[in-house]
C-alpha cells in the first residue's frame, strides 16, 4: 500500500456471505508489526465494524525507529472507508480516503486523497492539488467493480467460504490498480503472540495492472488466516506492495474479534 498497503493487504470480487452475515453486527481489530526489507519497520492498526448491511474500516500505519527517521515520515498514513454489503454479499465501498505521506513537513496532517466509488467508476480527488493517477492511469474499464485495500481485507476476514479461492480486484489509494489471485496452499500450525493453532495459507499472485508509474514485477505472496469461532477469518500475515519500500509484510501482534482477543 503506498498507503498500505500494502499492509496491509488486506480488491475485490464477491463476498460469499450468508444472509445472516449480511445483517450481522460484528467487529475486528488487528494490530500488526510491519516488516520491510528484512527489518521490523513499523506498526499497522486496522479496525473493521459491520452494523447491519453497512460497514466501516479504518487503519493507521506508522514507520518507527531508524526506518521512520530515514523515510522522514513519508510512509505514515491514516486510512478510512465506508460502504455497504449488497444482497449478494459483496462489499461495496462508497467513500475512501487516506492522508499523510511525503508532504507531512509542510502540511501537519499530510495531503488528503479521496476516492468516491460508484457501480461503474471511481473518481479520485486530492487536497491540495490534483491526484497523481500513475503512468499509465487505470482506464474506466479497469476501475469498474474494484474495491479499496481496506475493503479487500474486510472481504477476506468476513468471508464465509474459503478466503483462498478468489480473485481480488484492488484499486489501492485511488491510483494503483492490481489483482490478487488467491489459491489454497495448505494449512500450517502457528504459535505467535496473537494466535496459537492451525492457520489457512493462501498463495497469492500479485498482478500489477495500472497506475504504478514504475510498474513492480509480478510476485507470489503469502497470506495466513485463522478461522475464529465467530466465523470470521482473522488475518495473521499479509504481504502487500508499498510505494518506496517494496513488499511489506504485516504480522499480527494482537487480534480481537467481537471484543474478545484470540489469545
From TrEMBL:
Domain of life of the organism encoding this protein: Bacteria
Keywords, alphabetical: Signal
Any Pfam family hit: DUF3108
Signal peptide boundaries: 1-21
Name used for this protein in its record: DUF3108 domain-containing protein
